User: What shape does this take?
Amino acid sequence: MKLLFFIFTALLLSSCNDDGDSRRRAVYYWSTVLDVDSAKQQFISRHDISRIYIRYFDVVPGDDGAPQPNATLRFKTGVPEGVEPVPTVYVVNECMAGDTAGLARRIFDRVMQMSETNDVKGVREVQIDCDWTRRTRDRYFSFLRTFGSLAGQKGVSVSATIRLHQLAESPPPVSRGVLMMYNTGDFTDLACEKPILDMHDAAPYLRHLDDYDLELAAAYPIYAWRILFRGGRYVGIMHRDDYLPVLPGDSVVIRAPTLSDVTEAARAVAKRRADAARNVILFDISGSNINRFKPEDYEKIFNSDSH
Assistant: This one.
């Protein structure tokens, strides 16, 4: 009996450890230059980041309407040691409205070539980011099935971003999804004070989470926008001070989620999806975003299901 008790206890402890080990902290790196400097290295180490989703390039319609790569990433530094890289490609939805023959092959080959050229090792997953709609769903899902087949031949899995409005649709044919808990409002509207994250806008979509048949992680925003308005009309996002001309009478407003906005969203997701609560991603650590909150505040986001 004592032997059986010890075996049972060992198995119980093992299962508890497995559950703990299943937690994964990750970040996005969404820029045109990969530059993991000492500050970002420190952030990654301090918060036990084990995975980094790196935007490799965008796919946009060319002058002839055919999909083509754009804003390709330049590698100034490598991927931090001990952190799993996940190449990520943003595909403009319009690219799925036309002929997609051969597109999956071209994107996958380019991702693999960039990884090899820049000595990015340990790629086990590639992510596709696309704001698909019902109009483009069938073509997009067909594209993903082809992409997944190509990736599978190389022992690579495929994930996809899931926007809130997509939760009401069937899940895409991928291994897992990342729920994007940001960009919930209209940033071109001066009256919209929380375009990045407003739970008043996001909450109605979360009722679909309970029955959403796809493994999920969840991504939360740590970025801010400086938006230029002229005469109350949207002009553009100020990526830097001289990005757009600011005329007399113009207004530049800052839109940024508060810590309470982010933790409220994380708790709301955690109540419905344990898998998403265990797999939290911050968007993103490029630029000055890592200084937006205090270290203990980021821990609150990562541990939202324990609060």
